[in-house]
Amino acid sequence: MKIKQKNELRILMVYPNLAMMLVPSIAIGLFTKILKREGYALDLFDTTHYVSDENSSPQNRVKYLQARNFKEKEDLGVKIKTDLLGDFRKKVLEFQPDLLLMSVVEDAFLQAVKMLEVIQDLQIPHLMGGVFPTASAQRCMDFSVIRAVGLGEGENTVVEFAEAIRLNKSLEDVSGIWFKDSQGNIHKNHQAPLVNLDMCRPDFSLFEEARFFRPMGGRIFKTIPVETYRGCPYACSYCNSPMQKNFASKYGLGNFLRRKSMQALHSEISELKEIFSPEFFYFIDDSFLARPQEEINEFCEMYSKFKLPFWFNTRPENCTLENMQQVKDAGCYRISFGIECGNEEFRKKILNRNVSNAYLIDKFKLIAESGISFSINLIIGFPGETRALVMDTVEFVRSIYGYDTLTVSMFTPYHGTVLRDVAIKNGWLDNGSITKHTTAQSMLNMSAPYLSVDELDGLMRVLPLYCYFPKDEWKNIFPAEKNDEEGNRVLGYYGDIYKEKFLKFTQEEMKDFVVDGAAGCRVNPKDAFRISPSRLSLNEIEMLTLKGI
Fold it and tell me: Strands across the sheet with 10-15, in order?
């Protein structure tokens, strides 16, 4: 290829996303901003609105009574597409890119591989970055179609890579990549320093208008994502966020945990509001309130001027009466809290979340009294999880008053997580396995007393019903765990009641939290699941951790 001027270099950014995961990608937005500033010719291929025979995670959320129903076309303005690979090849042939840039999470990796395979004959240079290549670059490079991957933060790497392609230079000096030479040998380049977050501002202009509309609490908002915080201060064993921190430490890059200054954040939000006229901001941070109180004060004072509702994810431990009232006054519309497991012992010793049930119940009482709507995130199918442990989670949820929805995910053994290594150690997971999404079937092959794939499928169908209906109804709900004629009849009966009494309303409307005395402390505080039973032997604790490895 001849040396080109920057405005002649054509870069196609590719976002292999899970179907109908609706928030636009911050990574694609960041790279758009950077590459536009450099003067390259850009375009985007986004897979979000392509569906297949398998239900997407958002569709499963509705199916499993974890989210209110919505219609893609009428509510979101989405035109569903089906020929992903055909349309992708057509786009590539029309745009004639000199370079493809991909940002992938593990759940979308195999889709990305298929996309590269369908254009392999065109021999277009590409770079695949994101969380999965950072967590397991070698696993990515095992696929012959993949020629280069980016590890760690990509803001500097994408420009260096683009310039190497434009100038016909070797990739050996491009920071933060592994690449294959013409003989298939893998070269592992040095890592770039961490970026200054205050300088990282996204440009979402390549996304189509329908990509910004998202259901939230029973309403539809034009929503823009915002990153204020990179990294997470916690080290949960099921999460791959700690991997990023460990990666930065391994390569001597410094502390991965960084937050934007309020001045930079104010400028970014002002710009996004002016360009896109959003109705809602979606803060994507792992734990938004895990910051000093003075900074929360500063944020609330700054943000209140925008008068737009917003969402964030955080942990109950970060919530106080003071900051709940502050964020509510600033416009907080909704919060998501990850609880994951209701058994205190399992949560502390296996999940590395050292907080008691009693403490969390008291925190949720405070959160409910603030008047901010919130959802609770749960995970089932952990390595070594039994039915009794799942029902402990049910009992715990029944002790929490005022939640708006329950989100139940299947344990997903992401590369870079402690519990993936635990599952492999115990022979429950093949070392080469690559995840799908968080509502797909369990990937763990566990034998009794631990939960099987079929048992977990059954629990996924009904878990919100066990949390909602009184215990004397559980025996009647139990048949719904089976995907057969009787099970589907029972599921339809109880599911219709749940949707009518609980999911029918928007989060602002009054809803029925009690069905004939259901839901633990909503009826009697003494029934609250403040102390969960001990269910792990010393051998099991050793089995479910990486001690000695």
Answer: 41-46, 10-15, 99-103, 126-129, 148-150, 177-180, 186-188
